Amino acid sequence: ASQGIQAQTWSVYEKAKSLPNPPEMLVALTKVDLDAARPIHVALTVSDWLDLDDPDAILVTSARNRVGVAQVLDA
Fold this sequence. Notes:
By secondary structure, this protein is mostly helical.
């Protein structure tokens, strides 16, 4: 939640989207508990890069604080 999309994530996303029947994507921000986290800024940036309609659909997570983990597992 502080660095935006990492190169390996972008690569996997591009490959998945290029498939004949692309899977539904689950977009999640991780480590939102860090002091440097900027989840709103990163969510807006990610939603722009990925052309998402709703930045609020991006899950915010912190395994350390157990935030959003249930939502990821339920998705």
